Amino acid sequence: MANLKVTILHDTWEEGPPEPEPEPVKAPRGKRGKRARKKHPLFDREEIFEALTKLGHEPSYHVLDGKNQSLLALAKCNADLIFNLTESYAGDDTMDKNIVAYLELLHIPYTGGDPQALYLSQDKAIAKKIFDFHKIKTPDFATSYKGRTDHSHDIEFPLIVKPVSEDGSIGIDSGSLVDSVKELMERIDYIHEEFDSPALIEEYIEGREIYAAILGNDNAEVLPLIELDLSRLPKGTPRIAGQDVKFDYETEAYKVTKSAPVEDLDEEITKKLQDTALAAYRALKLRDYSRIDMRLNKKGEVYVIEANPNPWLASAAEFTMAAKKAGYSYTDMIDKIVELARARSI
């Protein structure tokens, strides 16, 4: 591949230049949520910059700070390719799809999901309806917003209640798992007040938390499966990947959980998980790379919980862990993503 001018595009809403904090013992898991971005503002983009440099490209940074000037400057960045790490605009997590729509108007190639894929993935209720249509198992669910129910299966307790459109486990904690109508009503009210968002109410699936990283497009590759082991959470703590598990470094929940390649699944179950993840990837029209979060219950049934377009790419993240298990170095992984995005403009 020819050497490219690659602009690493990222977002911020903080005043002044962010100060990086010391690296913790374990890096935050999964997608870059709000807390993860604040704690590690430079963590993944610096590694990507280094990898692009090793590949012979000319990387640079461009930050979208929520002001029009940063958007106008993006149009003049003269990049051959945008490596898209944005997840919000002016602090609004629902605006990521608009950013890539703007790049399309500018005819600048970029990595990862297009506006349609980001929209379908971000609205968890829409994604679940699409999974249902394609016969991909996902927990039965309902949505509710200030007294109005937009969709409802005949669901049974226990239930998980979370915002429809937030990512990075935002809005998910020990109170998200409810066992009674009283708890359900209280949690729905909390979601409405705290996030001004419809509440997604879905059946809780007891089982193992399995992540499938997918790399590619027409011939997409499902990388080795990764499990977030929740079995050592403190007694009485719900077995869910909430904010404390993913980002709160000082909590017991964070310290006793870890992600690692799955080693104990037989071929049949492994294939079932991989096939399910790939079906979800294609159903939501994802591209280049993504991570599909699933639950595997004791009966061997696989449920897709959600899809993560443009997941976190730090060297300690689950996606990179899966790529390494598949034989990719970090630089190889970044090279592959660049190649996949660049191919669309050739």
What attributes does this structure have?
single chain; 346 residues; alpha+beta; Rossmann fold; D-amino Acid Aminotransferase, Chain A, domain 1; 5-stranded antiparallel β-sheet; 34% helix; globular
Give your account of this protein's structure.
With 346 residues, the chain is α+β, with helices and mostly antiparallel strands. The protein folds into three domains: 5-113, Rossmann fold, CATH 3.40.50; 140-203, Dna Ligase, domain 1 (2-Layer Sandwich), CATH 3.30.1490; 206-343, D-amino Acid Aminotransferase, Chain A, domain 1. 34% of the residues lie in helices and 21% in strands. The strands form three sheets. Strands 9, 10, 11, 12, 13 and 14 form a six-stranded antiparallel beta sheet that branches. Strand 4 and strand 5 (148-152) form a beta hairpin. The model is unreliable at 15-42 (pLDDT under 50).
Entry summary:
This protein is of the alpha+beta class.
Strand content: 15-25%
Query: Major beta sheet, specifics?
Result: 6 strands, antiparallel
Rg over CA atoms: 20 Å
CATH superfamily of the largest domain: ATP-grasp fold, B domain
Q: What assembly state would you assign to the polypeptide chains in this entry?
A: single chain
What would CATH call the architecture of the largest domain? Answer: 2-Layer Sandwich
The pLDDT mean sits at: 87
CATH class of the largest domain: Alpha Beta
Strand tally, please? 14
List unreliable stretches of 5+ residues: 15-42
